[in-house]
Amino acid sequence: MSNLKIPEQTLSSPAFKWRWNVGLLIFAGIFLPLTLTLGVWQLHRADQKREMLAEHEQRRQADPVALATLQPGDDHQYRRVEVSGQPDGERYFLLDNRTRNGRSGYEVLWPVKTAAGKWVLVNRGWIAGGLDRRELPKVPGFETPEVTASGADEYLLEGYLYRSKGKALVLGQEEKVNGWPQVIQQVDMALLESRFGATLFPYVLRQEASRQAMWKETRQVTQQRTSQKVPSNELKTGWIIVNVLPEKHTAYAVQWFAMALALLILTLVSNSNLHECLQYRRGATKSDG
């Protein structure tokens, strides 16, 4: 009696099909464009920070120029300058909510009147605040310059110009405060000019050094200056150009793009039989082996 051979039943590969999950589609339709947009925005911020650092480094290496030679309407961001003049006796501003090494404090903005009769705000540096915010820190005055035989002397300050490209986020309107110093939340030149009562140079001079300059009766600066720079009363400078480095923005962008990719894969798997197709291929591969 002959043996009958029964043919093995073979399973056909499942065809790819869509299985719509409306809830997940709506979720992906909202958050997929959002994650992609945030990733692109982080890359854009990284490019901006690189440009800022490159511009600062380029202008930092240049020799300082006299502030009087600059036009207020031109772009002077990070330009190194020197200015000679007399600081106001008592009036200055304290820029609030400035932290260093986890400690809250203020940046001291002191108006200085140049030899040409113009006013410029000099950021002398950071000073720590106390536990009681009602008690303002005691800010030391400028160093006492040497007095010439004619009685004419000026402070010579060096640093670079800086202007914030956007307004800081503040809660509510800043109320006018009587007396000096005055605490401010942001550098709003129009507001500061109204409080100070004079026109200010549109950029703030971030002070890096203070040197005494000897002046002649003709009000022309001499070439003789003290060779040693005078310390700025222990006020901390060391300005931070960017709070977040370009590399960190790039890392943030990679994270957002990874989230977008994960959401795209989840949407594809949840709205189709792709998982079944992959399982069949995996089983077929093992059978062949």
Report on this model:
The protein has 289 residues and is of the alpha/beta class. It folds into two domains: 22-47 and 246-288; 79-225, no CATH class. It contains four helices and nine strands; from the N terminus they run H-E-E-E-E-E-E-E-H-E-E-H-H. The protein has helices at residues 22-60, 189-196, 246-270, 274-288; strands spanning 65-66, 80-87, 93-100, 103-114, 119-128, 153-162, 182-184, 204-215, 221-225. Strand 8 and strand 9 form a beta hairpin. Helix 1 runs antiparallel to helix 3 (246-270). The two termini are 35 Å apart. The model is unreliable at 146-152 and 211-233 (pLDDT under 50).
User: Structurally, how many domains make up the residues?
Assistant: 2
Low-confidence parts: 146-152, 211-233
Shape designation: elongated
Report on the biggest sheet. 5 strands, mixed, barrel
What percentage of amino acids are in beta strands?
15-25%
The Rg value, from CA coordinates, equals 32 Å
Query: Helix count, per DSSP?
Result: 4
Q: Provide the succession of SSEs.
A: HEEEEEEEHEEHH
Task: Note the topology.
Elements: H1 22-60, E1 65-66, E2 80-87, E3 93-100, E4 103-114, E5 119-128, E6 153-162, E7 182-184, H2 189-196, E8 204-215, E9 221-225, H3 246-270, H4 274-288
Parallel strand pairs: 1-2, 3-7, 5-8
Antiparallel strand pairs: 2-4, 2-6, 3-4, 4-5, 6-8, 8-9
Helix pairs in contact: 1-3
